[in-house]
Amino acid sequence: MNQIWGSMEQYNTVVWHWPIAVYLFLAGLSAGAIISAIVIKWMKGNDVSPWDGIIKAGAILAPVTIGAGLLLLITDLTRPLHFWKLLIHYNFGSVMTLGVLALFAYFPVVILFFMGLFKKELFETGSLKFLAPVADFALTYTRLIEGITLVLAVGVGAYTGFLLSAMNSYPLFNTPVLPALFLVSGISAGISANLIVGLLFFNSSTKDSNVSYLHGLDVKVIFVELFFLFILFVGMMYQGGSAEHVAKMALSTGGLSSLLWVGVIGLGLVLPIGLNFALPQGVKHSHGFVIFNSLIVLVGVMSLRYYILYAGQIFVG
Amino acid sequence: MTQVLSRRGFIKLSSTAAAVASLSSIPGTLGAMDESQKQLKGNAKFTPSICEMCTSSCTIEARVEDGKGMFIRGNPADKGRGGKVCARGSAGFNQLYDPQRLVKPIMRVGERGEGKWKEVSWDEAYTFIAKKLEEIKQKHGAHTVAFTARSGWTKTWFHNLAQAYGSNNLFGHEATCPLAYDLAMDDIFDNGISRDFAKAKYIINPSHNVFEGIVISYARQYMEAIEHGAKVISLDPRFSTMSAKATEWHPIKPGHDLPFVLGFMHTLIHENLYNKKFVEKYCEGFEELKASLAEYTPEKMATECDIPAEVIKRMAREFAKAAPKAIFDFCHRVTLTPQELELRRAIMMCNVLVGAVEQEGGYYLNKGAGFYNKFLGENDAKAPVLKKPKIPAYPKVEFPRIDRIGEKDSEFFLAKKGNGIVTLIPKATLEDIPGVPYRLHGWFIARNNPVMTQSNTEMVIKAIKAMDLVVVHDIQVSDTAWFADIVLPDTTYLERDEEFTASGGKNPSYAVGRQKVVEPIGESRPGWRVAKELAEKMGLSAYFPYKDIEDYRLQQVGDNIDLLAKLKATGMASFGVPLLLQDKKSVAEFVKKYPSAASKVNEEGTIDFPHKIKLFSPELEAVSKKGALSYEPYKYKEADELYFINGKSAVRTNGHNGNNAWLNNLCDDAAVWIHPKTAERLGIKNGDNINVYNKYSTQKGKALVTKGVREDTVFAYFGFGHISKELKRAYGKGVNSNALYSPLVSPNSGMNLHVVGVKVAKA
Amino acid sequence: MAKKYGMIHDNNLCIGCQACSVACRSENKIPESVYRLQVWVKQEEYPNGQLGYEYHRQSCVQCENTPCVSVCPTKASHVNEEGIVLVDVDLCVGCLYCVAACPYQARYVHPVTKAPDKCTFCHESRLSRGEEPACVTVCPTDALVFGDLNDPKSKINKVLSEKVTYRQKETLGTNPKMFIVPNHKGGINS
């Protein structure tokens, strides 16, 4: 029968586009950056000023990336001038409301962390002196704030996954593995971003021991990420029915599957691990290599967000 | 001046893609009008009227909402249609505001078909037309101008004008539509007949696709029959919606329905399945019929129509068993064979043979006021008859019509003068027809689109270009208007009042025609006004003795103010009780209401038919030696070609509303149906661009590979491939089926043929 | 007792003519490029080789367990007392979570308000006037039945008791109030 019912363009199952993928990447990166910064900070030897370059990197990255991400999100709304309604109307059954609330708390908290860390450089003299009391407050309650930040960061990292997994209209999203995968992937991205920024901009204050520690941690995190990715797809295949069909399609169809195998798995996961075990100590802890390694990890994480977002919306069984 | 459109030129014209660069509106269209003039002024209460989106003319109600919108629904008072409308009916509102709608008269300023226009005032338009008509009258005679109009809509006005002018070449669109079955009814029953689908238990349906070529009352009745367990047989070369709802679908060979019916009838007669009593009492010509059918055995006919003999015989037996609640549907328009008249006569005779006439679930005679009143007594109130105003006698015309109707030997003698054989007009313009000592020089076309609806588009255009005057009255620059000298803007059906109409089903009924829901937009004028004003210009106002439509309506009802009031309020009225002559219960009810009718009742408690039912036609025998039935095999195509057939889609109609915004959005391109095996053989995949071509035209389309069509057949919906560039949404999209059909005018019925041979290739 | 509106779409009576789609557009002033309602016609082949047409009404199925309402962050997407799922445009920020979350793809973004829109059983137009939805009113073959599921005497409950019906994607637990009378030939695609 001819298509006599009109255009079917509005039924495109892809509702959320690349800005959302970038936002998920930025949110995960922000959470991971602040988590790894705090983990380093809590280690003996790093816990007093002057702060290690990596910690400073994290303190800058976390609010900047989350701010950029939220800006992207707001401009992606179809009714952006009404975005403030998200802040005063809540539906506690919606992951988005919970995310809004978490971010509502997370954003100020990471700014506080930043202010406390950079009190000497930015808030003791100069035009921003009026904010000194806030920075002092941050320094006074530093352990508490860091603790709260850690919890919120885990929430933010995981919520990006829950956002998608709450929809049973997309079989590839609708799995409990997704929040775990996104959190772990976000941590990996945060570590890599901290390393890049720390080595490039705070080279002098970055301790080599912290660099190699974080790099090593990253490798472990990547193993976990690979594992979650594996059980995501294998789990779907064993579920049978439409889940199995979707998984098979997602793994083998078109440019997206190439992105998965080459970008996400190849470049972002297997290569870092491989290089870690293949290269001698001297090379793999050299600044040049660490930056290179972090870059490919970041590419892999961004590719993961892009792939999951699009593949999930395209392959619906 | 007259340019013969070369085949290449035509291909270029018809296959140009829909990339109509110009977004600007031509003069005279609504798009060229001032914004402020576009507000709707109309009735906020539901006004009963009649739809005009297709010929089904279903009853509707419409109201204006907030001065900008409109909601159209069916008229709930109409039980037969249940207060429903179809997609086209609901979309009618779009006609009002369409920027491509014509609201001022326009005159061409270039060659015919060049598409250059200038606005003129109505006065200028009338002056031009009157002058031209006078010229033709002096030079060639008024009879050389043909007038085409539509039944119930514009014939009253324009046929009146035509005859006052001195032309006898009056036409409706019937020869492209239901003429064949109209002629068959008149020949067999001396009366129109209808079908009581709802109560039937067995219906044979040859391509009568009421679910896509939607006639709402038929669609509802068929559904009711199916829901109550009726068996429906769909004989159709393609799998239509009717085929899907039917009990059985048999893909009959295109153009070969007549052999099926003859084999079917052969079985009815030779297996003694027919109703002997009924045939003896009420019919004449049975022996001639039986003799003429002798050679058309099911076995012989099976190879012709590609339906096995056993199946033909089985259906005949089932049909006879279900009688009198059995209907062999004589369809509507799809013209299937050059022997259209034989086909419809044969189908109707099947119902007659089993006595399924004038009983529930079969055929019944249409009982208008004239018929009905014959059964009433002197003192009974009679069914009102609508009157016509008194006018002077028409000037006598010395020449025969182009179809020679009215002459003793005319093969088309069965057709009424108001219908005529419109399909002959192109031939009568370009060639000499035997017995017609003139050629046509003018064509006045009201609400008709022959370039789109008559077979062999190239020939129609050629004829139009050869004429001295072509006038079109339409709401848009249709494909025919595109080639006209002057186009007059018609009101849409929502903007005009029309005359009252009278008809009858099981009893006489009356309808309001159309009623104005909004005031006319721009300078559009309805048919009654255009005819009257043009007549005034031509000095013929004596033939239009009414001030306006209200005045005319008053004259129609005479002093029957009740009828007038009822029609205006609810849109319809009926008289008396339903009557089925052969149904004892119905007759008893009838006699109860009209006791004087008791004298007409026979010993069985039924009423006899007023005329004998003719199973053999002496008149057809005298004129064409076709009094009995016969089958003349016809070569539709070459051996290496495919059959090309068309049909109706539920969301577009004919050539009229392809440009309607909403309907065009629903479907703007009709892909061509091809069987998977044929597609494979031709290397065509679903969605491929293809060329469908024969010696008449090459049409570009898309392929739809489906098992729902015969291997030797391709199918496309009708009403696509528009040629007028002013139909901007519809222009050039889809296959124009009539461009591919031959210009054949069938003997005795004048119908065009909608089966032709084509080749299909990947583009 | 509060009303609970539901609808039945009968595949046997539906002929895919799109009268419902056009009436809906006319009554609810739907912009030209989008649709609240379409009827998709699909050719099927049955196991014995026979052909058929299946008619799928594509529109909001008015779930009772609504995925779209649960994900809406501002409660712009909500269910009214009569069981109809509605969008309060004032509260909507256009995040399109509901559009993504709907398993039936019933929602589209309205080109003018930029908020998601969908079939509302003509709540704002005809229901408020005591009339049935536009689609039900015009359907030429009476393939649509509308009514109050909480009223035992309603027409919809009568038909639900007499004909076999199913609902789409029932396994998702959405509990839709759009019922389908399956074609009397062939299988059921739930």
Structural description of this entry:
- The complex is a heterotrimer of chains A (317), B (763) and C (190).
- Chain A is an all-alpha fold and 317 residues long.
- In chain A, 75% of the residues lie in helices and 0% in strands.
- Chain A is built from 13 helices and no strands.
- Chain A is globular, with a radius of gyration of 21 Å.
- Chain A starts with 17 loop residues before the first helix and ends with a helix.
- By secondary structure, chain B is α/β, with parallel strands linked by helices.
- Chain B has 26 helices and 27 strands.
- The longest helix of chain B is centred in the N-terminal third of the chain and has 18 residues, at 122-139.
- The relative contact order of chain B is 0.16.
- With 190 residues, chain C is of the alpha+beta class.
- Chain C has one domain (5-181): Alpha-Beta Plaits (2-Layer Sandwich), CATH 3.30.70.20.
- Chain C has helices at 19-28, 67-71, 97-101, 134-138, 155-162, and strands spanning 5-10, 38-45, 51-58, 77-79, 85-87, 108-109, 116-117, 144-148, 178-181.
- In chain C, the strands form 4 sheets. Chain C has a 3-stranded mixed β-sheet, with helices on one face. A two-stranded antiparallel sheet of chain C has the order 2-3. In chain C, strands 4-5 form a two-stranded antiparallel ribbon.
- In chain C, a hairpin with a 5-residue loop joins strand 4 and strand 5 (85-87).
- Chains in contact: A-B, A-C, B-C.
- Chain A binds chain C through residues 1, 4-11, 13, 15-16, 77-80, 82-83, 85-86, 89-91, 93-97, 100, 166-170, 313, and chain C through 16, 18, 21, 33-35, 38-43, 53, 58, 67, 70-76, 91-97, 99-103, 105, 108-109, 114-115, 172.
